[in-house]
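Example is below:
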Amino acid sequence: MSSRHLARTIAMQILFLWDFNGKKTEELPYIIERVFSIFAPKTVDKDFAKSIVENVIKNLDKIDEYIIRYATEWPLDQITIVDRNVLRIGIYELIFNEEIPEKVAINEAIEIAKTFGGISSGKFVNGVLGAIYNDIQENKI
């Protein structure tokens, strides 16, 4: 497993806990430290993972607007916490992070969804991010 893939999974776990616990910003440093100490004490690019978390939170309203726009059958609060946060990372990397190739952002999100989500999470994430990608290619967004 690449160190960036592992960093993305750590970022998803941090965002999951943050979201699950009511998105309390004051708890974020504790959550970050706890997740790193349990799941990746030495083997992860902590700066990359923290950057993902910080930028997802910084752009949360805009990212959630994409989820609402492209996952039309699912109200945001009814999407599982795993899928919601995998989408947040995928959308952040797809739309807001120009350093990550678009297809890498999509593929990484799908793999994380398959690993941590439910039986149809990979397809769901692929569908939402694929629709966003198609609109990017057609310059609709």
Q: What stands out?
A: The mean pLDDT is 94. The longest helix spans residues 3-20.
